[in-house]
Amino acid sequence: MINMIEVRNLTKRFGRFTAVDDLSFTVGAGEAVALWGANGAGKTTAVRCLLNLFPFEGEILVDGLDARRAGKAVRRLIGFVPQELSFHDDMTVAETLIFYARLKKVPDGFDFQPLLEQVRLVPHVHKRVGQLSGGLKQRLALAAALLSDPPILVLDEPTASLDIRSREEFLVLLRSLKSEGKTMIFSSHHLEEVTALADRVLLLEGGRLVVDAPPDQLERRLGWETTLHIYLPETVIDPAVEHLEGLGMPVSRNGRGLRVHVAPGAKGKVIRVLHEAGIEVDDFSIE
Amino acid sequence: MDFENVLTLIQKELRDAFRNRWFLLYAIAFAGLSLALAWFSVSGAGSYGVAGVGRTTAGLINLILLIVPLMGLTLGALSLAGEREKGTLIYLLAQPISSGELLLGKFVGLALALTAALLIGFGLTGVMMVVAGGGGDFGIFATLMVLSVLLAIVSLSLGFLISAAVKKAATAVGLALFLWLILVYFGDLGLMGTAVVMKLKAWQLLALALINPLQVFKIAAVFDLRNNLEVLGPAGIYAFRTYGTTLWPLLVGLLLTWVIVPFALATQVFRKRGVI
Predict the structure, then answer these.
(1) CA distance A286 to B256
(2) Contact B205/B196 with Cβ under 8 angstroms?
(3) How far is it, in rounded angstroms, from Cα A235 to Cα B153?
């Protein structure tokens, strides 16, 4: 896989405070990588360094371009969705998109309609930004980020200000963009968001990289295994144990079923592989 | 430097300025006061025409010295700090534009908006004088208009420097108002007091006056009106006798320096401080 983003020894200090400490990682083309961690872990600072929004130590390459020396060219490759909804409230949706389209050098005569339909903003196009709900503003931010069809999307806590329903809708949009092949790097402190969208998770603590793992291995790496109790007909318990062990899953017999140790993000996988092996599950519970 | 980006930002800044209540308030106040001043000047002269234009211009100098720096300083102070506080600055700079393009676009946009506000005020006043007096030396009036625009841009540049350095809009406006007070009162009371206490020579007094862009404007405006500087006392007489006609390029050059230097400093401060 070709690396679209390479971060080497990134360090950012604000006075004596070190917000990001010697962070190194890569993001492959078409990959979705989550920067996960608590508030103050350094996620937003790392994202802002990618955009060269302030001076930093270390090196950041985006599609081979040095973010520090070729900041404008790098930002042309990136669509950015900020954490705080930071548009000009007195501009309409249409004015906002036209303004950012001009800065992104979108050709004259660009048809905004498909983009507005994609993010479902068509009914709101003449409203002022100040009149939009948080969810609609976030969709506007995504539309602005997609204006020049950049290969990379950088999203800083994209669902932080959204209610549950708006968050679900926004995640559906992001998943469709991922399936279109966009490279994504996003920060979040919601585990379900991370497991739903990311191919890899970078856990940050105090500005340092603690874990770099796929979501289904994340909790095992952190010692957060979940036990899944699966209830099966007596006749298929042994074949089920054999099958799951064959896939490397830690499994044991337990009364009228099985006990499997899995990461929370991989519970469905157990049910699925049993189903694919022709073993029907009667019931299950989670410990 | 991508001038297409600069142009896009200029257009946005112009549109924002005409929606900004501070800007509208200043523009209306300036136009209203100019008109009132012109009306009283023309009426007080007891006759119309040249005398009316001259009296109006003289009165306008004091009005401009108070209002125009206030307009430029506060609008400049709000420009970057306001966007920084709202979070719009960071989003703008996450786009494929450079900080130089952003600063130039915002500065030129605001300078054009201020120019438009002043031209409206001067235009209405000029029309009223024509209607009331039917003529006069409008060259003096036009020169004062150009000098006022220059003073507005000087003030904008100083406000911009404040805005580049601070995080909150309220702090920036507070500093701008403080600077306005210093510039206004250092001009007259401060200079008079210093001259008496320090027993300054005429050239020292002139040098001290030229440090203050408001005084530079005042000297240029009086020179425009009277073609001599006797009304400004020993420093004025010294300036006129020493520099004669070269006083014009010197004063205009000083005002232009007051535009360029604070703006250049603002770009350096902004680059060092970053967007947060």
Answers:
(1) 75
(2) no
(3) 88
Q: How far is B120 from chain A (nearest CA, A)?
A: 25
* Cross-chain CB nearest to A82 (options B5, B91, B274): B91
- Between the CA of residue A122 and those of A81, A116, A136, A172, A272, what are the distances in Å? 19, 5, 11, 18, 39
Asked if A197 and A155 touch (Cβ cutoff 8 Å), the reply is no
Tokens read off for A15: 């006075």
User: For residue B131, what pLDDT is reported?
Assistant: 77
Q: Which of residues 190-229 of A touch B (CB under 8 A)?
A: none
Chain A residues whose beta carbon lies within 8 Å of the beta carbon of residue B13? none
Residue A264: the pLDDT is 67
Among candidates A91, A12, A78, which has minimal Cα distance to B276? A12
Q: Which helix (H) or strand (E) holds A177?
A: helix A164-179
* A147/A79 Cα distance (integer angstroms): 8
User: Do residues B9 and B101 touch, judged by C-beta distance below 8 A?
Assistant: yes
Quote the pTM value.
Answer: 0.79
Going along A63-171, which residue ranges are E strands? 65-66, 78-81, 152-156
DSSP code for A153: E
- Which ranges constitute the DSSP H helices of chain B? 3-19, 21-45, 50-86, 88-93, 99-133, 138-165, 169-185, 191-198, 202-211, 213-226, 234-243, 247-273
For chain A, the residue count is 287
Q: Which of B159, B205, B163 is nearest to B186 (CA)?
A: B205
A114-155 pLDDT tens trace: 888 888 888 898 999 888 888 888 889 888 988 988 999 999
Sign of the C-alpha dihedral, residues A168, A173, A175, A176? positive
pLDDT level of residue B48 (50, 70, 90 thresholds): very low
Task: Evaluate whether A258 touches A251 at the Cβ level (below 8 Å).
Answer: yes
Under a CB-based contact definition with an 8 Å cutoff, are residues B218 and B194 in contact? no
* A175 pLDDT more than 70: yes
Q: Which residues contact B52 (CB under 8 A, 6 or more apart)?
A: B38, B41, B42, B45, B129, B132, B133, B136
Amino acid letter, B211: I
Q: Which amino acid is at B86?
A: K
- The ipTM value here is 0.76
**What are phi and psi for residue A73, nearest 5 degrees?**
-65, -35
Angstrom distance (rounded) from CA B53 to CA B129: 7
3-state secondary structure of A3: strand
Amino acid code (one letter) for A135: G
Q: Which chain B residues are closer than 8 Å to A104 by Cβ?
A: 95-96
Answer yes or no: do A76 and B96 touch at CB < 8 A.
Answer: yes
* Percent of chain B whose predicted confidence (pLDDT) is above 90: 35
